[in-house]
Amino acid sequence: MVCLTVAGEMVYGLAFHVPRYFKPTLLPALGISNAQLGDSFALYGILAMLSYVPSGLLADRFGARSLMSLSLVATGAGGLYFATLPGWTGLSMLYAYWGVTTVALMWGALIRATREWGGRSEQGRGFGLLDGGRGLVAALAASGGVSLLGLGLGQDPAGATEAARASALRGVILYYSFATFGAAVLVHLWTPEASRPARTQQPQPPKTLQVVRMRAVWLQAGIVVCAYCGYKAFDNYSLYGHEVLNMDEAEAAGFAAAAAYLRPVAAIGAGYVGDRLGVAGSTMALFATLAGCWTLLGSPTGALAGASLTYGALLTSIAGAFGLRGLYFALLEDTRVPHSVTGTAVGLISLLGYTPDIFFGPVTGRILDATPGAGGHRQCFLLLAAIGVAGLMATAALRRSIPETRCRAQDERPLSN
Predict the structure, then answer these.
(1) 191 neighbors 64 (Cβ within 8 angstroms)
(2) What is the pLDDT, as a whole number, of residue 345?
(3) Which residue from 47, 272, 301, 316 has the fewest beta carbons nearer than 10 Å?
(4) Model-level pTM?
């Protein structure tokens, strides 16, 4: 599980951590706008979407060690080019490349190995530990990056020259690149062969078609869409701190890095609660909480409520989005997807579930560019509130469909609660 958490997070460090925690520095250093960065994410999302189903098929055919090691090496190599601080065209091509390396070779293997680790009765625990562990890795990596950025910008970040900013950002990118290579070595040395599926366990066409016909699988994909939008919103929180809460670049990066430490607590806690009180019900509660927090942050009156309430709503929304990540793939056991086609099911769910990689960045980037400052951020929060309500409705529908799913998946033994 340690190998899975390190590999599962560091493979996304270059593509997501750098813009998430260091966005106020990244945009001017590359000479791009919020919308252009969002469009680069859209290219990543398109290639990732095309890679999810092949990723699942590869995971049902090959072992996790070889797939994950190759993914990490290929992704880290892209970071060496990123360190040259390319323009928007080069950045877009790099994100398209990462859409393949981080998904086709990694995602299905990671989720299948975690589901096997969790067994039949502790899926919440397994996926909670995976995402909580990934969160801890992300927070520790971000803290190291923030320290490097602070050293590069000096004692007066606001007065740093453009050359100093570029040099500091380059150091952060190289730091993430070599951390990704290090994760590849860790996986190669320590990932057990037990996580490797037998070659005879290829998905059979009737079972694959059964998964496609399951209404609950498509509802789960909708849940992942809504939950992932909430997670993607975290990419704008450092910018929110800089533009709305009057933090300098280093303080904004530090705020986002500190908030990232909520992820292991929230994801692991949500996973354990889901195993005891029900995954679907816990997911509904988190969506309801998120919709309330985002509505407060998006309302003009919410801005007048005081700093304590604003920070409370921000941190609660961050924790809630992290908590959902510890739950939504645990719903696989509720939907009774056969274990032999886990990779295929994950590929289908992810094909739709991670489409926010395509649209969320471009949409929110254009909102923030069109209405700079607090107004644009309020509009983004109101959009998120509507998405939270949609997630609540999709989870309620999934919960009602679970008995039907159990009847249709007759090849699986009943699971204990």
Answers:
(1) yes
(2) 76
(3) 301
(4) 0.71
